[in-house]
Amino acid sequence: MTEVLEHVGEQVIADSFAASTSGHLLACAAAGAAFYTTLEVVLAKLIVAAIAAITAFGSAVFSWAGAAIVVEEAGVNTAIVATAVTTLSAFLAAQATSMVNLHGEAVDSRSFPGSKWPSLNSATPA
Fold first, then answer.
1. Which of 27, 59, 111, 113 could hold 105 in an S-S bridge, CB 3.0 to 4.6 Å?
2. Rounded to two decimals, what is the model's pTM?
3. Distance between CA atoms of 36 and 27, rounded to whole angstroms?
């Protein structure tokens, strides 16, 4: 009975580490999706503003206000992209940390039940 309890306790530790790593990787995937969605929206806005500006310039109607809007759009969009890249970098750093921790656990035999790799049939204790 003690062996079973020890095995279950070690399995809980392994499960919590796996759950933690899984959580980090899911957060990084969500951050990546949010990053690309943000990039898509910013790029679409920038394209629309550029088309409007080119159309206005092509009609020989020059407006300082229109030129200012184009410059402002470019500046704001650049700031949004920079913020998105910074946020994505932070999440990727968390992912790298999780991967390093996972590697450390994988090479440390004490991390596994009975200080050895789990058996191929996980339904039976090693």
1. 111
2. 0.57
3. 14
